[in-house]
Design goal:
Elements (H helix, E strand, L loop, with lengths): L4 E5 L3 H12 L4 E5 L2 H8 L5 E6 L7 H11 L5 E5 L4 H9 L4 E4 L4 H17 L7 H9 L3 H11 L4 H8 L3 H15 L4 H19 L1
Parallel strand pairs: 1-2, 1-3, 3-4, 4-5
Helix pairs in contact: 2-3, 6-10, 7-8, 7-9, 8-9
């Protein structure tokens, strides 16, 4: 069962209990932590597994814990738990290597899918989920305006801000966003971001 361990880091006892119950009844071994500090204290010797990490906590927040993990070479896949309006922070987490993010309250299906994505990353080691070439091909299928909207999403901007920056209405942004997600075969913002970041990595590697 060690390969199916989920480290659940959240200061909210109700979340630890509810998410822990859903995961345990789905066959996972759950190790709860009430703070980022308590997780980091045992992370080096923790069983390999996926980390469910709340982005807003007293003391060290999720982004700080994620950075500490990166600095210490703790290569456990992270799924961020976010609240409504935390998209900008979620984007920062994705840029720092988070596998996915879940907005509270989340459904059981979404929770299990995100955790399984984390275990996929763990099994694959350092192999990227998507090649830069594949990502570039997908982005090339978008119109110029759709790519502009993707650029706004990468910055973590809401539709209203993207629309203001592009000189279009939020409703038009919503339409472009729906169209680009359909073309990319994405069902969530995190999937769009994964494609965009993979393409960015390819550009950066080509320039080095």
């Amino acid at each position: 069962m060690t390969e199916c361990t989920v480290h659940l880091v959240d200061d909210d006892d109700a979340i630890r209990r509810s998410a822990g119950f859903l995961l345990k009844t789905s066959g996972y071994l759950v190790v709860p932590y009430a703070s980022g500090d308590s997780f980091l204290a045992s992370a080096k010797s923790a069983a390999p597994g996926c980390v469910l990490l709340d982005i807003r906590m007293p003391g060290m927040d999720g982004l700080e814990v994620q950075q500490a993990m990166n600095d210490r070479g703790i290569a456990l896949p992270v799924v961020m738990l976010t609240g409504h309006g935390d998209v900008t922070l979620a984007v920062r987490a994705m840029k720092a290597g988070a596998v996915d993010f879940l907005e509270k309250p989340f459904e059981k299906v979404a929770l299990l899918a995100a955790v399984e994505k984390g275990f996929d990353r763990l099994r694959e080691g350092d192999r990227l989920d998507m090649s830069a070439a594949d990502a570039a091909v997908q982005l090339a299928s978008l119109t110029g305006r759709e790519r502009d909207v993707v650029g706004g999403l990468i910055e973590g901007h809401p539709n209203k801000v993207i629309g203001f920056n592009l000189g279009i209405s939020p409703r038009t942004v919503e339409i472009h966003r729906a169209n680009l997600m359909r073309k990319l075969g994405a069902t969530s913002l995190s999937q769009v971001l994964q494609i965009a970041f993979a393409a960015q990595r390819g550009i950066a590697e080509a320039q080095n």
